[in-house]
Amino acid sequence: MRQRIDRVALDGGTALCYASIGAGRPLVYVMGWLSHLERSWELPAERALYEGFAQGCRLVRYDRAGSGLSPAADRPASLAFELEQLAAVAATLDEPFDLMGTSMGAPVAVAWAAAHPDTVRRLVLYGGWARGDDLSPPGVRDHVLGLVEAHWGLGSDVLTDIFAPDADRSTRAELARYQRACSSAATARELLALSYELDVTDRLDQVRAPTLVVHRTGDRAAPVAQAEALAAGIDGARLVLLPGRSHLPYAGDRDELVRVVRRFLGLPVGRRSGLTARQREVAGLVSQGLTNREIATRLGIDERSAEGHVERIRLRLGFRSRAQVAAWWRDQMG
To answer: What CATH number does residue 84 fall under?
Structure first.
């Protein structure tokens, strides 16, 4: 898939960057705490998540002000400003859309669905909460906020361990670097503080869209009790609990999350661990012992593309090494 990046102006002239992937009815995706449209597309695990959602629809996601490609605005972080940014993206669409909020994006999505019921076809909330004040004790929050502000490098490492404990060491290191590339320490601290301040408990009963609440049972960043509160407060909401400890949607069993969401949205659900034709071709070359450079030469692509194909194959199949991919291919071929 190809990602298309565009810009929309907020009041005051600040540009907000958003990306579109796929084609079909829109699925607007409200990102969590920090994001970067380009770097996330280069991270194989995260890209595979978005490609999974975008099959048969148009996935639209955006970098909030001060994060990723969107420049900072001369505005303090607040729920009202979050809704203004979502409104700017929604204005580029000419039809009702499915809305998915993850982590900090979940309470923002709730607030939008409550205030604009005619715009939301279906609502999905992953890893979210109703009241940010209940996420952790005040002392823990103050410690994390202080760490992010004073030692952004160490703070990103600590938060990555909380957000993605199921990821291997190299992936966690990459995620920590990714967070630091998304924003300054000051912006990261301000947005994290907003996460703790968001409270949409008084808006839950105003949501009219069919709603799916998805949460991992061992989520260390958002207690499962918050998912239960969201589902209990929204009339008719369905709660699905998945095993795992990772807060990030693309860490852990990403494929199962994609299947659950697609089924709720009425999109076709593919087979588990299915590979594309090109991925099967690359897997066959891996089984022959070819390096990424040799694969690139054989297929007439650059080495980085070959590396991305191999990584997405490994992630989709749930393997940790090229040797496992090769063994799987040999089994497939009998």
So the answer is: 3.40.50.1820
